[in-house]
Structures are given as structure tokens and as C-alpha cells.
Design goal:
heterodimer; A: about 325 residues; mainly alpha; ABC transporter involved in vitamin B12 uptake, BtuC; two-stranded antiparallel ribbon; 15 helices; about 0% strand; B: about 290 residues; about 75% helix; globular
């Protein structure tokens, strides 16, 4: 297949346009130092949410342990880049984080992903708590409850943006591949998928490991940008924060996760003065969305360049997709 | 040996609190197959109601306990009616997310109302310590243990001997068949929430008394551990929750008593994962084959 077709070219322009937009924003001072923190939070949340959406929205496995994998990435990057405060150190830390998080996800996933729905949720929650307690007790490396501080500031929004692009390309291509369709079939009906000869545990584990790896990247970038990390940053609450983004955007829509991360990030700035009321609004909204619109803002819809280029053919293919 | 027995006594009082919370989890799960994440926070609300009743209304221990149980029962039913009932036919993940949302709402609502600082729970029971054979048992511990046993016996009586209890058992076995037999399933579910939540409310007051401090986030960790207790004993099985509660309480105090206080939570989670992998139906549960 031709790699430089109209679709990919469209995406390239789209990505470049957003990059230039942010660049202009920071250069002219519209995005000042305060808004840059918001921007970084949004960008990191995009990586977290898309990774979690792959696990929950596409493979249909309910994981509540995303913060644990984020913690692994954050601490690996923190420890390595304090020793080697260069871009290379950051990359090394991220790679180590990805490796360890994937390994942990694999080890945990093989036995637990055989569990159904809510049992899996509790098991992953337990795993995340165990990760946090282990970090808390490795005083020599992680400095215990006080956490790591003075992590060199290396990750900027450009690097984070690059990682979003990379992780989205990997995840979107995975979803559209044959294993990706097998993964979606598990979400739709696990027993039917199994009877069609799909090795359900294998595809669940692949989705779980991919999600964990992307969480590790996000954690590493978080550590490098905010320069202070504590075990208390990666509790169950953090997992729920990410879950809220995924649910708002729609389980099974990567576009939704991206949009929700942006919208909630901007909303956060305006709701800041309300303090605790903000969390109440979030929790009420979470319940309300589940009661009135369980599929989230975008359901399983995706924004595509080919859809923009040719709406008619998109409609046709969607109808066919529904008929399946 | 003495130290071991002392830890065992402490474990029993902690375990009875876990058991009270675990009963609510297990009953709700048994009847609508939902992990009621908000259950731990109902327990927190119970502690605050008890605090208000004793501090502001100047009630003594037992009236405060009963007031807290009644309030939590109403709260539990309200949550069920507003948040869970519309989702009865939705996916399990949707229901679970709603439960997490409710839990979040209760926590943050309470922080909004009373602030996030820790408060001292009024000590309404004289903290007399009895000693025999070198073992120390405080009056609070005896009180907790006795209240728990009485409440458990009452629960067993309701579930086994009353008409409503029979209906509960019928709905948990097969909700559709129960409906066909003329049982009002919605009422039975609400009743289950009321029972479970009132036990959590009682546990909240007892724990306030035992640890002498309450705060809006206190429901999270005991809620999870109580859920683990329910899974350990076999979720959906009432004696299983009691057994699991005591077991988790004793394991936790033993681990922290022998120098592992920093890893006691990790040990409990590890037990959960091991149980889920080797016997997901719990120690007292039977394996059920999945049907298409």
C-alpha cells in the first residue's frame, strides 16, 4: 500500500497545524507560563486516556490500575534522569519505565485477565496499590513517602507532543489491524469471540500491556516536567481521574478521549476558584453521563481525515459497519 | 504466645468492623451483581452521623448507633434508587463506573460540608482496660465485638426466617424467576441496600469509637479491605463475608504486629489477587460454570 496517500498526508498537515498553533501560542505569550502547565497536563492526560481507552473501551477489560503503571514510568524516569540529566537520560528512563511497566503488566495480566469484569477491576486496583506500597518502601531508590524532588526539567511540550503522535499512531494502527479487530470482538462478546477461535487472553494481554506502556510514558513525562513526584500522586484517585476522561469522551472512541482531555483540562482552569465544588460537579457528571448517556460524549465515533475528505463514502462505510 | 494472643484479640475487633462492612458488599453483590464502591463511603457517612449525634445532639452511644444506622439505610436506598436503578440493564462496567462516581460524590460532598481535616471522635464509652492472664481487652473492643455479633445474628434471623429474607434469597438465586413468582424485585433490592448500608453505618460509629478519629476519606481503605474480605469468603455468601472479615482483620493485625506495618496493605491485596487467581468464587463458594 502506498504510504503517502491522501489520508496520511491529511493527518500530517493536521498534526503540523496543531503543532504550529501551539508554537504560535507560546511564542506570542497567549499561552503563558500558567497556561503552559495546563497545556502539559492536557497533553499528558491525552496519553493516559488513550492508553486506558485501549484497555477499557476497545478490549472491554475494566482496569482500575492505570495510576500504578504511571507511577512505574514516573519513578524510572525520575531516578535515571537525576543521575543523567540529559535528553538521553530522559529517553533511557522512559524506555526503562516502558520495559518495567510492560513486564509488570504481562506478569499481572496473564493470571488476572482470565477474570471477568468487576473481579478484574478489583485485581488491577490491588496491583496498583501494591506497586505504590513497594515504591513507598524502597527508601534507598525512591526516597519513600517524601518522594523524588529536583528531577531535571527536560520534557517540554514539544517532546510530549511527539510522544502523543507516536502513541496515537501505534494505538490507532493496532486497533485497525487484525489483532485489533480481534480485541474489539472480545469487547462485543467474549464467548462468541472465543468460539470463533480467537485467543481472548492473548489479545486482552496485548491491549493491557500497550496501555500500561503508554501510562509509563505519561508518568515519565509527568515526572520530568513537574520535577517532583510522590507515591501519593499515584493513588486510586489518579486512576479515577483518568477513567473520568475516558468515560466523558466515550468508551471506544480515541477522538473522544483526546477531546475530553482537552475540554476537562480547560474546564479545570475555569473551575479552579470553586475548589471542592469542582470535584462534586465531576462526580455528579460522571453518574449523570452513565445514567443518561452511557456511551459518553462521542460514543464510538472517530474523527478521520478520510471522513473529512469524502463524507459520502464515510457514511456508506458506516452503514456497512453497522450492518455487520 | 502472649503477644500472639494479644494480636489475635486486636485482630478480632478490627475484623468485626471489616465483617460488618463486608456484609453489605456481599448482599448487594449477591442480589444485583454490582460492586457497590460507594459502600465504604456510606460507612464514612455513618461515622459522621454518629459524631454529630453524640457531639451536637448529646445522645449516648446506643441511640447514636441506631440513628446512624437509620440514616445510612435511607442514604443507601436513595443512592440505589437514583443512581443504580436506571442502570439495572446496562453493562456491568457502566454500573461500576456509576458506583465509583457515587463514591467520589460522597467523599467530596463530605469534604465540602465539613472540611477535610481529621476530627476526634467523642469517647462515650469509658476506656476501661480489663486484664486477664496478661492479655489486655479494652471495653471498646468488647463493645465492638458484642455489637457486631448481635447485628450479625439479627441479620441471619432476617435473611433466614422472615418473608423478606426469603424473597432476598429468591432474588439473588434468580431475579426473573422471583419476579414471576410475584416478588417485587425492586423493593427487595432496596431492602437489601437498606440492610447493608445500616450495617456499614454501625461499623462507622464503632470504628470512630475504636480509632478515635474520623475524616471524609476514611471509607476508602476499609471499604476496599472489606470488599477483599467478601471476596475471600466468597462473594454473595453471608457467612463467607463474616469469615472473610475476621480473617482479613486478624491477618492485618498479625502482619503489622510482627514488624510489617508498612506492608500490611500490600499483604492484604496480595491475598486478594491469589484468591482471585486460584479460587475466584472464594473459600466458601462453589464454582459456577458460565452459561451462554
Amino acid at each position: 500500500m502506498k504510504q503517502f496517500n491522501k489520508k496520511n498526508f491529511g493527518w500530517l498537515i493536521f498534526i503540523a497545524a496543531i503543532y504550529i498553533l501551539i508554537q504560535v501560542g507560546t511564542a506570542t505569550g497567549i499561552i503563558n507560563a500558567f497556561y503552559e502547565i495546563t497545556l502539559m497536563t492536557i497533553l499528558i492526560n491525552v496519553i493516559l486516556a488513550t492508553g486506558l481507552n485501549l484497555i477499557i473501551g476497545f478490549s472491554g477489560q475494566f482496569s482500575l490500575g492505570h495510576a500504578g503503571f504511571m507511577a512505574i514510568g514516573a519513578y524510572c524516569t525520575g531516578v535515571i534522569s537525576i543521575k543523567y540529566p540529559t535528553v538521553l537520560g530522559l529517553m533511557g528512563g522512559l524506555l526503562l519505565g516502558i520495559a518495567i511497566a510492560s513486564l509488570v503488566a504481562l506478569l499481572v495480566g496473564i493470571p488476572t485477565l482470565r477474570l471477568k469484569g468487576d473481579y478484574l477491576a478489583i485485581a488491577t486496583l490491588g496491583v496498583a496499590e501494591i506497586i505504590r506500597i513497594v515504591i513507598l518502601n524502597m527508601n534507598d531508590i525512591t526516597n519513600g513517602a517524601a518522594g523524588l524532588s529536583g528531577i531535571p526539567f527536560i520534557a517540554n511540550w514539544q517532546i510530549t507532543f511527539a510522544f502523543i503522535v507516536i502513541s496515537l499512531i501505534v494505538i490507532m494502527n493496532y486497533i485497525k489491524s487484525s489483532p485489533g479487530r480481534a480485541t474489539i470482538s472480545i469487547r462485543e462478546d467474549e464467548i462468541a469471540a472465543e468460539s470463533m477461535g480467537i485467543n481472548t487472553t492473548k489479545y486482552k494481554i496485548i491491549a493491557f500491556v500497550l496501555g500500561a506502556a503508554s501510562a509509563a510514558i505519561a508518568g515519565g513525562l509527568h515526572a520530568s516536567y513537574f520535577s517532583v513526584i510522590r507515591p501519593a500522586d499515584f493513588t486510586f484517585m489518579k486512576s479515577v481521574d483518568i477513567l473520568i476522561i475516558v468515560v466523558f469522551g466515550g468508551l471506544g472512541s480515541m477522538t473522544g478521549s483526546v477531546v475530553a482531555a482537552i475540554v476537562l483540562g480547560i474546564l479545570n482552569v475555569y473551575l479552579q476558584p470553586f475548589g471542592q465544588l469542582r470535584m462534586i460537579i465531576y462526580s455528579v457528571a460522571l453518574v449523570a453521563i452513565m445514567v443518561f448517556r452511557p456511551s459518553g460524549l462521542l460514543g464510538t465515533k472517530e474523527f478521520t481525515i478520510s471522513g473529512l475528505l469524502d463524507r459520502k463514502s464515510k457514511k456508506k462505510s458506516m452503514k456497512e459497519g453497522e450492518a455487520e | 504466645m502472649e503477644a500472639f494472643l494479644q494480636q489475635l484479640i486486636n485482630g478480632l475487633s478490627l475484623g468485626s468492623i471489616y465483617a460488618l462492612i463486608a456484609l453489605g458488599y456481599t448482599m448487594v453483590y449477591g442480589i444485583i451483581k454490582l460492586i457497590n464502591f460507594a459502600h465504604g463511603d456510606i460507612y464514612m457517612v455513618g461515622a459522621f452521623v454518629g459524631y454529630t449525634a453524640i457531639n451536637t445532639l448529646h445522645l449516648s452511644f446506643f441511640p447514636a448507633l441506631i440513628l446512624s444506622m437509620v440514616f445510612c439505610a435511607i442514604l443507601g436506598v436513595a443512592i440505589e434508587r437514583i443512581a443504580y436503578k436506571p442502570l439495572r440493564n446496562a453493562t456491568r462496567v457502566a454500573a461500576l463506573i456509576t458506583a465509583i462516581g457515587m463514591s467520589y460524590l460522597l467523599q467530596n460532598g463530605m469534604i465540602y460540608l465539613v472540611g477535610s481535616e481529621t476530627r476526634a471522635f467523642p469517647q462515650v464509652i469509658k476506656n476501661k482496660v480489663y486484664e486477664f492472664a496478661g492479655l489486655q481487652v479494652s471495653q471498646t473492643q468488647i463493645m465492638i465485638f458484642a455489637t457486631t455479633i448481635i447485628l450479625m445474628l439479627a441479620l441471619q434471623l432476617i435473611v433466614q426466617k422472615t418473608k423478606m429474607g426469603k424473597a432476598m434469597r429468591a432474588v439473588s438465586t434468580d431475579a426473573d424467576a422471583a419476579r414471576l413468582m410475584g416478588i417485587n424485585v425492586d423493593n427487595v433490592i432496596s431492602f437489601t441496600f437498606a440492610l447493608g448500608s445500616s450495617l456499614a453505618g454501625a461499623a462507622g460509629v464503632l470504628v470512630g469509637l475504636y480509632y478515635n478519629s474520623i475524616e471524609p476519606m476514611m471509607g476508602y481503605a476499609p471499604g476496599l479491605k472489606a470488599f477483599i474480605a467478601a471476596v475471600l469468603g466468597g462473594i454473595g455468601i453471608i457467612p463467607g463475608a463474616m469469615f472473610g472479615g475476621f480473617a482479613i482483620g486478624i491477618i492485618e493485625t498479625l502482619v503489622s504486629g510482627y514488624g510489617g506495618s508498612l506492608i500490611k496493605d500490600a499483604v492484604v491485596y496480595l491475598i486478594l489477587i491469589i484468591i482471585l487467581i486460584f479460587k475466584p468464587s472464594g473459600l466458601l463458594g462453589k464454582n459456577v460454570k458460565e452459561k451462554v
